[in-house]
Amino acid sequence: MLFYIYQPALIVFAALLVVCFCLMFLKKPDKQSKFFKTLALVLAGLFFLRYMSGHNYLESIVALTNPEISSDFLTSVVIVLDWLNIAAMFIVVLNAFFDIKINKFLIMYFVVPVALCNAGFLYWSIIGLSGTTATYSFDAKTLFYVLEQAALLGIALCFAIKYRKFKMTAKEVGIFFACLFGILLCTMPAYSLRALFGGGPSVEILDFTLSHRIAIYLGFVFPAVLFFLLKNKDYETKRYVIIFIALSTLTTFLNNFLLSDMLNLSLPLHLCHTAMYILVISLIFKMKRLFYFTLFINVLGAFLAILMPDYSSGTLFAPGYVIFWVNHWTAFFMPLLTVMLGVFGRPKWKQFMYSMIAFGVYFFLIIFINAWFSNYLTKVDYFFVNSNFVAEKLGKWAEDLLLVVAQFKIGDLSFTLYPLYQVLFFFVYCAMGVGIWFIYETAYDVGNSLVVLFEKKKKIKMDELALSIQIKERGSTTNKEGEDMLKITNFSKKYGNSEKFAVTNANLEVHGGEIFGFLGPNGAGKSTIIKSVVGIQPITSGKIEVCGYDVEKQSVDAKYNIGFVPDHYALYERLTGREYINYMADLYKVSKENRDNRIQHFVDIFELNHAFDNQIKTYSHGMKQKIAIMAALIHEPKLWILDEPLTGLDPNSIYQVKETMKAHAKKGNIVFFSSHIIDVVENICDRIAIIKKGKIIYDTSMKDLSKDGKRLEEVYLSHIGSKGAERD
Questions:
Q1: DSSP line for 378-438
Q2: Which residue from 165, 272, 487, 720 puts its CA 20 to 30 A from 209's CA?
Q3: Residue 499 carries which DSSP code?
Q4: Are the beta carbons of 359 and 437 closer than 8 angstroms?
Q5: Separation CA 530–CA 598 (nearest Å)
Q6: Could you give the CA distance from residue 435 to residue 217 in angstroms, rounded to a whole number?
Q7: pLDDT by residue (tens digit) across 642-699?
């Protein structure tokens, strides 16, 4: 009875001492981090010593039948508290090393209550861990447990005081419970389900029975779910989750390899066993080479073990069954998930080769250890290279290899090797490792493609939402006054981080029925204005309207009214002329009747009947130019823009293009073209403008120019300079 009162009081007293000591350091932020990390490591050390010092009495319980604790209720409480205690311990320890916001809430609303319950039920917890003898005689495991609980409560209270001002939002409450569910799933002791509910249904796991297939499928479901939950999180959050899972599943696995077991040469030297340690060490200390070893070697071994489990049946809640699948699922999917989430980078061939070399050293060391330990134990078979477990699944030819035996002695020790079988085993495994390399590369490419696809879909949805909001805000109305006009108002443009403007404060109006000539030397800003009008590049400042539509805010509506022939066009040259023009007509939603009439009209004008059904790559430069013009006019645009359209054309083709321009303007449309051929501009245009160094310096009608008795060439040279082309 004295123990019943004394032990909880001891925990509370020790915890309060820890709190008081910590509070002194809370006032010194520069010392807080190191101090709490030290306390966290002390807590982890106490847990490790207690956990590894021997098996719990709780592990012998089946469906709450425990002779040490008379009450089923108290037995269930102790089982659940042992489970919650592991979760609380990992949350507190990792919180000292990772600044994850949800951890703060987990400590305040989960860890502190668990630590207080542990103190309150300490007497029964100790009986559950060490038996009734620990209540009246010294027991090292009990001492470690009491100190562990004192440290847990003290550190948890310190963190709770530190985080007391944090409040959860409604969204964070949902995240809190989701995270808690995942944490409890990862930290569940192997014995807990059997202790609470009994052994459960029998399961067969050989020959791909239903239960075996379900177990295999879960090995793919878990990482897929984790990937999509974590893919958008920051690096530290991803690393925290991966380390938490690796540490907690290692704790479950260690139940089969306590210190007493290892001292009796029951060592975790199977590949899948070493994976549990390697993953934790490589993640905590960021040891890339060690990680890539487990990626190429352990993952393959774990997958083969999942396909060929080394026992045939059991019950669903049996600790051995739980540990087997926790071990092999973790060894299989955790390294893959780590790479997919970007915690470690995609491996290169060099890392693969290093892994194969390390595996060779490990493999032949295991062969020697198998032969050595066989002198002390009846059956030693690390990696299944000392028995016919794998050979019998491959057939008689593999079992025959085991008949080739090499034996020798070193002192009093006898060594037995199976050289042919073991060497072949090694080379086959390496060959499978090469295969797994290519599978990884394919899987990573597919995974990255899926991520890109999901991101694109997400962006499309966001763009659609933004567009719908903009449409609601501005409507699809046009400026009625500008329905037959191209209007450029105070337009300026500069590229990138350049401080120099390519175009400055340009103002221009071109009306329906006009053919407008745009003149200027190379680099003056002609193409800059044209590309901004057609929406190829954004506007720095000012406004451009096409037929009443704002080019920047109503770009789709504006583009439906534009036909553009660039100076350097790009055509799909594997298509025929007819296929290409029909493709463009589809983009602009031109009806079949209208497109057929227009196509035949342009084919006749441009004299393309003989070649229109040939591939465009067989066309001459002039023919390609005509196809580009047809593509720009197939939807009968109100604004037709041509950038240097006559360059390289023969006289006949130039005539055809000029006649087409006149016909288009005669319908009340705008024809806007830039050119260096001043004679053509003078003969065909109704109005012209001259631009120099990004500024429109002259704008007049050809009628006014003719009244003044001036020639366009003279006017152009007087404004630009007789040297001709100037560059910005």
A1: S---GGG-SSSTTHHHH-HHHHHHTT--EEEEETTEEEEE-HHHHHHHHHHHHHHHHHHHH
A2: 272
A3: S
A4: no
A5: 26
A6: 21
A7: 888 877 778 888 888 889 999 999 999 999 988 888 888 888 899 999 999 889 998 8
